[in-house]
Amino acid sequence: MVLKNASILVVDDDADVLTALRLLLKPLVKEVFTEKNPNQIISLIERTHFDIIILDMNFSGLVNTGNEGIFWLNRIQKQKPETSVILMTAYADIDLAIRGLKEGASDFLMKPWKNEKIIETITTILSKKTATSLQKDGFNTSNTEIIGDSEVMNDVFVKLEKVAPTDANVLILGENGTGKDLIARALHDNSNRKNKPFIKVDVGALTSSLFESELFGYKKGAFTDAREDRKGRFEAANGGTLFLDEIGNITLGQQVRLLTVLQNRQVTPLGSNESIPVDIRLICATNEDPKVLANEKRFRKDLIYRINTVDITVPPLRERGTDITELSHHFASLYAEKYNKNGFSFDPGFISKLKKHDFPGNVRELQYVLERAVIMTDGDVLKPEDLVFSSIERSTTTKSFETTSLNLDDIEKNAILTVLEKHKGNVSKSAKELGITRAALYRRLDKYEL
Ligand SMILES: Nc1ncnc2c1ncn2[C@@H]1O[C@H](COP(=O)(O)OP(=O)(O)OP(=O)(O)O)[C@@H](O)[C@H]1O
């Protein structure tokens, strides 16, 4: 969450403190409420949502033990556990500060305060709040965090938090490897459907015969290989979220089938006469611009409107500023653990080399680059020479992959490069043409170090 969207309550019995903090924060945040009487806290937090409460620890008329602050901190946490509390005291009592933090306060400030320190404290808490709310539940199970603190990513998080609890259909836009999958998962994990299934289908990689059987299911005997009834992905996602990835790559005929299901909210498995009602929240993703798809008549406008109640555009990594550093630390420690190595520090040239690269493959490319660096390096410091950028993202400029070798690996590698070139590096389209899934293609790219 960013500062400008925050709602803050300040509780202090000193009117001068309230005025000073109101004047400081008002131009920076969405709203500031002030309250002299701590007894009003509970009714205030019942009526209004506050992201942060700045709470005095000592109220006049009472003994200055700081216990009043701890008492109100506990009440706030019981009532609104998601609200962060910053404690303030005029008494430089470090033990009390530690006690407050142990009891769940987010931070602690001493009076007289420095304005920059207050703003810095609030900003840090807000950015952690975003990360935590996006990591809870599902992310614990999938072990994936969405890393990012750049302004552009914070805008994505703000939109995500607003949209997730609604049932709105969401279209996620962004280049390959920007994290669209993670955003889809976060939408589900932060929705009322979070305890129901989250089903992902790579529709862009499905052949036309698989499209219907995979999505709508089939009855035994519907076609030669249908040896038993099989539920489609729509039915499997019933009550939960259906995530259709690479939606921009489906044919016009498939679009008609999809539109019918979305309009009627029911599916008919192949070989069946009975329709099954389905209640799903639909999330779609594509790396293509929907306006271009519609203008080139590759995508039906009525379907775009239906899947796109809200759109979220995930920015490319090259526009995310310092996120590259944060992500690099994240991947370095992830892979250090995976490959049983000690933690790594970065040589200064390491990050500057990363920042000079424009990452056409976005976060996925950075992830591979860091994994390779962790595997290849000898010491505990990652250096610029440990960075090798993959040729897959540059494959569009490499012209000839012809080979006379009859070695099966060489043939497979060259087939992959040729198809990637044909589809300008688009992994979904290439996987489809090669007759394998995207995951299988990624495994081969890894194997051949492409
Ligand atoms: N902000 C992020 N923090 C941590 N990991 C990330 C982030 N964004 C992406 N990743 C990682 O990068 C990889 C690619 O992300 P993801 O599959 O979500 O991208 P995508 O946009 O869906 O790609 P594609 O368009 O190819 O489907 C994944 O391993 C994911 O965990």
Strand order of the largest sheet: 2-1-3-4-5
By secondary-structure content and strand pairing, the structural class works out as alpha/beta
What is the rounded Rg?
27 Å
Provide the CATH architecture of the largest domain: 3-Layer(aba) Sandwich
Q: Sheet with the most strands?
A: 5 strands, parallel
Give a list of the ligands: adenosine-5'-triphosphate
The CATH superfamily of the largest domain is known as: P-loop containing nucleotide triphosphate hydrolases
CATH level-1 class of the largest domain: Alpha Beta
Mean pLDDT: 85
Low-confidence stretches: 133-143, 395-402
Task: Chart the SSEs and their pairings.
Elements: E1 7-11, H1 15-25, E2 31-35, H2 41-47, E3 52-56, H3 67-79, E4 84-89, H4 94-102, E5 107-110, H5 115-135, H6 138-142, H7 151-163, E6 170-173, H8 180-189, E7 198-202, H9 208-216, E8 217-218, E9 230-231, H10 233-236, E10 241-245, H11 252-264, E11 266-267, E12 276-277, E13 281-286, H12 290-295, H13 301-307, E14 310-313, H14 323-338, E15 345-346, H15 348-356, H16 362-376, E16 381-382, H17 408-422, H18 427-434, H19 438-447
Parallel strand pairs: 1-2, 1-3, 3-4, 4-5, 6-13, 6-14, 7-10, 10-13, 15-16
Antiparallel strand pairs: 8-9, 11-12
The site of adenosine-5'-triphosphate has 20 residues, from α8 and α16.
